[in-house]
């Protein structure tokens, strides 16, 4: 039997629903913090966020481990990381998200960055680039000022620029190919000025081709960290004859995205030492 509600009852229910909606929108990370319907809140991006959405997820790579060294990258999504478990599993290096744009700092960065160092790993920091929110030099400064620096202690890798598919909007952040190359150049130059090191570039070949026109001018100085979730690395962006690191999955067996360094442990040490 249908239930008939009075106008007063319906008004009360509508008022209550609006109050609940207002409360939800006020919560951290709520929809109001996103760039639009279906978009994640700013600050939530991590390495491979756009890669997985655009290029898909493949299998675990085959081949021997003798000339490769296992690594992991983490962000606030992993919270406080059990570094002892990762070390026991064979992970020997790590990258930790430090910043995004000029508006976000990873709240778990101290535990993740210092914890990986404390267990014995060689570790570094990465910056998730948002070229539509601030210039390259400004984002490099923000990164260095909030954990992305470098020291010659043999345990710190140079900072990494995570430049990939935009999870918040237009794939190329509203930039032309020439404009994107200019933005990346500004970031890299400022990072080198601040730290004395050339930053690592993390990207996907598909994004690099679309958004930079497959520009090859950074390959001579900047190690390539390629993202491809498949059984092989596949074709690399223009200019790079080989990759330094390979992110092969966004769902590691323990925590974080898993990677392989293209060389034995002493090559990881060499990159840290500069």
Automatic annotation (TrEMBL):
Cite the residue spans of the region called Disordered: 32-53
Signal peptide range in chain numbering: 1-33
Catalytic reaction list? Hydrolysis of (1->4)-beta-linkages between N-acetylmuramic acid and N-acetyl-D-glucosamine residues in a peptidoglycan and between N-acetyl-D-glucosamine residues in chitodextrins
- Note whether Hydrolase occurs among the keywords: yes
* Protein family (similarity comment): Belongs to the glycosyl hydrolase 25 family.
Q: Does the keyword Signal apply?
A: yes
- Keywords, alphabetical: Glycosidase, Hydrolase, Signal
Q: Which InterPro entries match?
A: GH, Glyco_hydro_25, Glyco_hydro_25_AS, Glyco_hydro_fam25_subgr
Put simply, this protein is called Lysozyme
* Protein EC: 3.2.1.17
Gene3D superfamilies xref list: Glycosidases
């Amino acid at each position: 039997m249908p239930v008939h509600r009075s106008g007063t009852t319906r008004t009360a229910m509508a008022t209550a629903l609006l109050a609940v909606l207002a409360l939800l929108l006020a919560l951290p990370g709520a929809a109001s913090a996103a760039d639009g319907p279906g978009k994640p809140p700013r600050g939530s991006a991590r390495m491979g966020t756009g890669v997985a959405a655009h290029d898909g997820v493949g299998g675990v790579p085959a081949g021997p481990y003798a000339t490769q060294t296992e690594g992991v990258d983490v962000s606030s999504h992993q919270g406080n990381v059990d570094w002892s478990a990762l070390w026991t599993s064979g992970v020997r290096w790590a990258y930790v998200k430090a910043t995004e744009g000029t508006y976000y700092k990873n709240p778990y960065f101290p535990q993740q960055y210092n914890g990986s160092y404390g267990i014995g790993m060689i570790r570094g920091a990465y910056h998730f680039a948002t070229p539509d929110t601030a210039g390259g030099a400004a984002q490099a400064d923000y990164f260095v000022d909030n954990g992305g620096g470098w020291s010659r202690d043999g345990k710190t890798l140079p900072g990494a620029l995570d430049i990939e598919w935009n999870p918040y909007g237009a794939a190329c952040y509203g930039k032309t190919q020439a404009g994107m190359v200019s933005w990346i150049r500004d970031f890299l130059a400022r990072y080198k000025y601040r730290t004395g090191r050339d930053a690592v570039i993390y990207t996907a070949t598909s994004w690099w081709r679309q958004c930079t026109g497959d520009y090859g001018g950074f390959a001579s100085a900047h190690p390539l960290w390629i993202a491809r979730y498949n059984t092989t690395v596949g074709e690399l962006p223009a200019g790079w004859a080989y990759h330094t690191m390979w992110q092969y999955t966004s769902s590691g067996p323990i925590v974080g995205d898993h990677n392989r360094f293209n060389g034995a442990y002493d090559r990881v040490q060499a990159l840290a030492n500069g």
